[in-house]
Amino acid sequence: MTRNMMLIINPHSGRGLSKTALGTIVSQLCAADYNVTVFFSNEKTPEELAYEHATKHDLVVCVGGDGTLSGVISGLLRSKASIPIGYIPKGTSNDVAITLALSKDPSKAAQTILSGTPRTLDIGKFHDRHFTYIAAFGAFTGVSYLTPQSAKRSLGHFAYVLSGIADVTAIKPRKTIVEYDGKTIKGEFIFGGVTNSTSVGGFIKLNPDKIDLADGLFEVILVKQPVVPADFLEIMSSLTVKTYEGDNFRMLHASKVKFIFEEEVAWAVDGEDGGKHKQVEIENCHKAVEIVV
To answer: Which helix (H) or strand (E) holds 175?
Structure first.
């Protein structure tokens, strides 16, 4: 039985997709009895395309970075289209692809979509928008959306590292009240992140054996500003051995979390600009989507 597939391509993600690779992908998908309709996110965003057209298809596949995937998922949730998602990663960091062990080779990723199994994932709600794997403030969070696209294409992940180093001088601890599932924490943090991933921008790697992407809970990461060299070593040690314990590094688990600041703080949501806020409320949308793995 022939099924309808929506293929959304972000031509600006990462180093882009060559015409040869695009032809190979489309040929593979068509050979598997799919009617493939290709959409490029030039005049309209991935979210707009998914929202407007997903209900007419049996499967939506996106080619791009984590931001592209996030947009597609947001569009699906808005349209209430209950169909699986296929992901062909062509971004710079590809945190979601790393977490789900998806190949960065377009042909292999397309084959996974055809022969794989849908896996349910929790999705985050950040005020009135959705996110796939992280909402964060503080150190390095502006790197993704402030780094020029030309630098991302030419330098790849190294562009993030360079921009991150340049961002160090601008790190400022934020007085924060964190309310989560009936509990409260107060402190001054240089980084705060709400994640559903094992990889965060290449800077933080979480233990995949301890992360469940569909348990209804986020991992909430809080990092204090190092005061003495021993503090910095403790943070780096926690990241290296994946213990996430100590006075300077905290990891919590929560279905709902609220951040309260003394002043407006900039946020990044799936690598995109999330705006500045004095209060942020984040909620876990349990098993909201299915991604083929």
So the answer is: strand 174-180
